[in-house]
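Most newcomers find our protein records easier to grasp once they have seen one. A record pairs a protein's sequence with a compact description of its fold. An example says more than a description, so a record of this kind follows:
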Amino acid sequence: MPVFLDLDNTLVDRNTAFSRWAFVAVASWGGGAPDVEWLIQADAHGYTPRAELAGMILDRLKPATSDVDGLVAQLLYEHVDFIECYPGVLAQLDELAAIGEQLVIVTNGESKQQRMKLRRTGLGEIVTGSAISGELGFKKPDARMFAAAREIAEADGVAWMVGDHVEADIAGGRAAGLATAWVTHGRPWPEQWLPTLMESSTADVLAMVSMSIRSAI
């Protein structure tokens, strides 16, 4: 019973990492607190295309030593130095691995950036493998992402998708025939249908997935 795992804002706290980086970067560009808040909002949890966001930064802050390509590289890679797993995540993943579960990262994102995160956090040492959209040429909720994860896990039958994004992770996983576990981060569920389970924190979600798997063994 493999477990597929979203990366950003599910296993790792991408938003906090970006916010911490933004504070340092904006100061280096001569901006202040309002510019930090603007950048965090403009980032849109990482969903604003990096070249578009770089152009917005150039228009607002006019950093003297940066161009679009340089800013894109900064946006992609510099916040990785601040990336950390959410509390309890590594322990819960170790527990799932200990009972023989195949763990596969299923993430949208640029290849180098996502693999940097896996190395920094140690997640790459725990999981069986990773399906990364930047390497595959398609992204969640495309069913091919989940099919790629199944190939990595070398497993058929019931699988879980754990994630924080309603459309990409939960709706996409559900459409692919997976059991789904939503990390709410305190948000209400917005759809008429329900995921298989949901909890506020990733550690609690993973603990519930573990209990469900153990009960089925």
Remarks:
- The chain has two domains: 3-13+84-216, 14-82.
- The first strand starts at residue 3 and ends at 5.
